[in-house]
Every structure is written in C-alpha cells, then in structure tokens.
Design goal:
The complex is a heterodimer.
Chain A lengths: L2 E5 L2 E5 L4 E8 L5 E7 L5 E7 L5 E3 L5 E5 L4 E6 L8 E8 L7 E3 L3 E6 L1
Parallel strand pairs in A: 2-11
Antiparallel strand pairs in A: 1-3, 3-8, 4-5, 4-9, 6-7, 7-8, 9-10, 9-11
Chain B lengths: L4 E3 L2 E4 L5 E6 L6 E8 L3 E9 L2 E4 L8 E4 L6 E5 L8 E8 L8 E2 L3 E5 L1
The chains are: A mainly beta, B mainly beta.
C-alpha cells in the first residue's frame, strides 16, 4: 500500500522568505508524485507533477519540487513567498498498480505574514 | 468543457434522506474519480470509472453509496439513507487515458447532513 506523509500541518513564513513544504512517500513501484494547492472553498489545483523524467520539477506560481529516491522525498519549495501563496498544500502519490487513484498526505496549511 | 463541473455546490439533507451529486468531467477525459474530503484535510478515494465502466470501487461503502457514469450524461454519486458521518466535501476529478496524466479536480460539493 502507498502512503504519503507531510511533515508539519501548519507552516508560517514571512512574505519574501523561502517556502519549504516536506513530503515523504512510500510506494512499492516507481511513483508518480503530485503537489496540489487548495484555496478556501475550492477544489485542488495542480502545482506540479513528477513522472520519472527530470528529478527537479518546475511548476506554476514559482514552485518547484525535487524527487529524491534515496530519501523517498518530494519536497516543495518556492524561493520567495507571496501573500497569495496562503493556502493548503497537498502532496499525493498515484497508485499505478490500481488505476491511478491518488493517496494524499494530510496537507500543510501555509500562512504568509506581511 | 475545460473544467470539471460539479453540482450542486452545497447540498443539505436530513439524516436518512437521499443525496445525489453530479460531475461533468473535462471533455475528452476517459477517467473519472470521486474522493471524499473530511475534516478539511483528509481525502478518501471512493471510486473511479474508465468511461462508463467501474474501474476501481475499493473505497466505496457499498451498502449505501452508488455511482454511475453513463454516456452523454454527467457522472453521479448517490448516497441512500444518509448518516451524519457522510457530511463532507465530495470531489470529482478527471484525467486523460495515459497513466501519468494528472487528475483535474472540480470545486466539490459540500454535503451537510442534519
């Protein structure tokens, strides 16, 4: 069975500071990994995906993530936080052996301080 | 359409009543997924379809939950004899046929059972 762990349910950063959201996964097959963002009362918006190509993946809104197989990690970063980055972020792994259903981490809420 | 469309946005039912939720996937997407989000952060996979065929229903509480995706109609998720614990936001997602294509999510239906 697959699993995703997001360390830290809440992260507070100052505007302009580095954003780092941690994600570790467990998968019996080479994983497909995703980061989604959820704004209040909205659905999930895809930030970026890893599908076994380049290990450093660039996404929308200045976010990027690095796949590290040895650490089973897929941490999300953004060099400079903006107020509009305040949202809930979810890391997910696709179950390639079972129809690609997603298993999500518990989410990390990002608060951006002015 | 270009977005996954879910209706209604909010649905209120008394305990024991029936609830029916609808989802129109993105045109050209072959796969439809339903997820239940409880407590603002926990996503649970319910069921997936490949076109009109059930692909994976391992997450469905079968005694009260049912779902369909019929040709030329929105997909639907129906809950019979609702319980208080069914209160959640139900998300629909769709994806193209290839396995590394990401799932695109609708804005969800918030179901409140009173």
């Amino acid at each position: 069975a697959q699993s995703v762990t997001q360390l830290g349910s809440h992260v507070s950063v100052s505007e302009g500071a580095l954003v780092l959201l941690r994600c570790n996964y467990s998968s019996s097959v080479p994983p497909y990994l995703f980061w989604y963002v959820q704004y209040p009362n909205q659905g999930l918006q895809l930030l970026l995906k890893y599908t076994s190509a380049a290990t450093l993946v660039k996404g929308i809104n200045g976010f990027e993530a690095e796949f590290k197989k040895s650490e089973t990690s897929f941490h999300l970063t953004k060099p400079s936080a903006h107020m509009s980055d305040a949202a809930e972020y979810f890391c997910a792994v696709s179950d390639r052996a079972a129809g690609n259903k997603l298993t999500f981490g518990g989410g990390t809420r990002v608060l951006v301080k002015p | 359409g270009e977005e996954v469309a879910q209706t209604p946005k909010h649905l209120v039912r008394g305990e024991g009543q029936k609830a029916k939720l609808y989802c129109a996937p993105i045109k050209g997407h072959s796969y439809v997924f339903w997820y239940q989000q409880v407590l603002k952060n926990e996503f649970k996979f319910l069921i997936s379809f490949q076109n009109e065929n059930v692909f994976d229903e391992t997450g469905m509480p079968k005694e009260r939950f049912s779902a369909k995706c019929l040709p030329n109609s929105p997909c639907s998720l129906e809950i019979q004899a609702t319980k208080l614990e069914d209160s959640a936001v139900y998300f629909c997602a769709s994806s193209q046929s290839t396995e590394y294509q990401p799932q695109h999510f609708g804005d969800g239906t918030r179901l409140s059972i009173l």
